Amino acid sequence: MTIIELVAKEARPERRKIIAAALTSGIANAIVLAMINQVTQEGSRGANAQFLTLFVFAVVLYIVGARANYHRTTTVLERALHRIRTRVVEKVERADMEKLERIGAAEIYDRITDNVAVISESAGRLAFFLQSLCIIAASTLYLASISLPAFVLIALLIVGGFTLYASRNQEISAYFIRAAQTRLTFFNQLTDLLEGFKEVKFSRRRGRELREDMVQTSGALRDDTKKANALLDDNFIFGTCVLFAALGAVVFILPLRIESLGESQQKLIAGILFVWGPLGGCTGGLPAYLRSNVALSAIDDLERKLDEALEAGGGKATEDPWQGRLATALEAHEIRYSYGDGGDGGDGKAAFRIGPMSLRIAAGETVFIVGGNGSGKSTFLKNLTGLYRPRFGSLSVDGVPVTEANVAAYRELFSAIYSDFHLFSKVYGLTGVAEPKVHALIEQMQLQHKTSFAGDRFTRRDLSTGQRKRLAMIVTLLEDRPICVFDEWAADQDPEFRKYFYEELLPSLKQRGKTVLAVSHDDRYFHCADRVITLEYGKIRAIEPGSGSAFKPPATHSATKPGA
Ligand SMILES: Nc1ncnc2c1ncn2[C@@H]1O[C@H](COP(=O)(O)OP(=O)(O)OP(=O)(O)O)[C@@H](O)[C@H]1O
C-alpha cells in the first residue's frame, strides 16, 4: 500500500471534502495568476478597486481551501497512524510468545516509532502535493486558454519529464528498503552496546570490535542513504531542467512557429513561472513520499508477521471454566515441546526438546523443580503456565482440559516471577489497590527504606536485582492467584532473606492454600517442599518427597522414566 492509498482509504468519508478544498485553493491560485496577468497587461487602467476586491477574494478563497486541505489531510493521516499503532499493539498483545520472540524487539520498536514518524512527517507534503496538482491543473487550463499549441507543447514536456523523473523511483526505493534493514542491525548493535556497557568497560578490545562493527553498519547506512539521495538530487535537477525547457520553448521556439503569439508570450511565461513553485513542490516532495512508502510497507510487513504470530484462536480465548480457582489438581499429560519447528535451525544442532512428561500437582502442594543448567526447567514451566503451547499432549485443571478457547483464563491461574521478569512503571492489572496493603507488603519485604507506593506506582524501581525481585514478589502477593511460580527467585537474595523465603514465605503461601512451583538450586532447603522433581535433558529423572516433608505423593502422578 502506498501512502496515497492509505490516505484515500482512511479518508473515505471526507475524501470529497479534501479534494474540494484542494481544488478551491488550486482554482483560487489560478484566478490570482489570471488577474495579475490581466492587470499587468492593462497597466494603470487595470489596477482598479474591482480587480483589487476580486484579488482579495481569490486570496481569501485560497486561504480557506488550503487550510481545509492541510488540516484535513493531517487529521486523516494521523488518524490512520493512530489506528496502525493501536492495531500493532493489539496484535503484539495477542501474539504467541514463542513466535513474537522470533520476530524480535528491534523490528517492532523501529516500525512503531521511527517508521510511523517518517509517515507522520509526510502529512504536510502530501497536502501540498494535492494542492500543487490542483494548482497545476487549473493553471495549465489557463495556459491552454492563452494558446492551445503552446499548452500542448508545455504539457508534453512536463508529462514526458515527469515520466522520466519517476522511472528511477524503484531504484531509489530499493536503497531506502536496504537502509531500513541496516537500521535494524544498527539498532541491535546499539542495544548490545547499552546493555553490555559493563562488559565493554572491562575490555577495550571488546569495545573496539563492537565499535568497528557499528561504524561499518553506520557506513552502510550512510552509503545507501547517500546513493538514494544522490538519485533524488539528480531527479530534482532534471525536473528543474524540464521547467527551463518549457520556458525556453515559449521564449525561443514558439515565436518561430506561431506568429500570432505576440503578447500571449508574456502571459505564458508568467503562467509557467507561476506553476514553477507547485511543480517544485511535487518533485521536491518525492523523497518524503518514497520514504513514507518504504516505511509503510515495512509496517505492513511487520503486521503480516504479527498476523502469522497470532495465538491459535486469534489470541481471543474467552472461556473461563475455573473462575480463578484451583480445586483439586493441575495435570500435564504426556506433554512434549520443542523450540522452533523442531528441526535443527540450519546449524546441524537439534532444537532443544522436553518430554514426554506427565505430572499431577495437587492443589496446595509445594513443588520444587531442580536440575542442571539447560535441563529444561524454564522451558517446562513456560509450557506448564501456558506461555508456550505443548506440541503434543495436554494440560488440564480440575479435570478440565486447557484449550485454545480457555488458555487466557488458564494463564490467569498463575502468578509467575521468571528470572527475566519485568517490573512495570505502574502496577497494571492491580490499579486502585489499597495503598496501606501495599505498604504492609513493602515492610514485609524489608524495602520500606528503599521505596514506597503512591498513585499505583512504586516510587523507586532502580533497586538491586534482589530488591527488584522482592518488588515482583509484592505484585505476586497482591495478585493473590491460586498457583505461584518462582523461577530461581531466591538466587539473588541474601542468606537471611533466602531463609525467610523458604522457611516463612513458602509455608505461609501453603497455609493460604496456594500451590507453589519453585525452581531451586538450594538443596539445603529441599525439606521445605512437598516434592522435588528433578529434570535432566528435558525429561523428568526423579520425583522425590521433599526431605522432612509429610507430603505423600498423590497416587495418580506418573513420571516418564529417563530414556522413555
Ligand atoms: N528461545 C529459545 N530458542 C531456542 N532454544 C532455546 C530457547 N530458550 C532456551 N532454549 C534451549 O532450551 C534449553 C533449556 O533451557 P531452559 O532455560 O529451559 O533451561 P533451565 O533448566 O531453566 O536452565 P538454567 O538453570 O540455566 O536456567 C537450553 O539449553 C537452550 O538450548
TrEMBL record:
Membrane topology: Multi-pass membrane protein
Entry keyword set: ATP-binding, Membrane, Nucleotide-binding, Transmembrane, Transmembrane helix
Domain ABC transmembrane type-1, chain residue ranges per copy: 19-212
A Pfam family annotated for this UniProt entry: ABC_membrane
One BP annotation, GO: peptide transport
Recorded GO CC terms: plasma membrane
Main location: membrane
SUPFAM superfamilies: ABC transporter transmembrane region, P-loop containing nucleoside triphosphate hydrolases
Record GO terms (molecular function): ABC-type transporter activity; ATP binding; ATP hydrolysis activity; ATPase-coupled lipid transmembrane transporter activity; peptide transmembrane transporter activity
ABC transporter domain ranges (all copies): 330-562
Residue ranges crossing the lipid bilayer per the database entry: 18-37, 49-70, 126-144, 150-167, 236-256, 268-290
Record's keyword annotation contains Endoplasmic reticulum: no
Compartments, as annotated in UniProt: Cell membrane
Protein name: Putative COMPOSITE ATP-BINDING TRANSMEMBRANE ABC TRANSPORTER PROTEIN
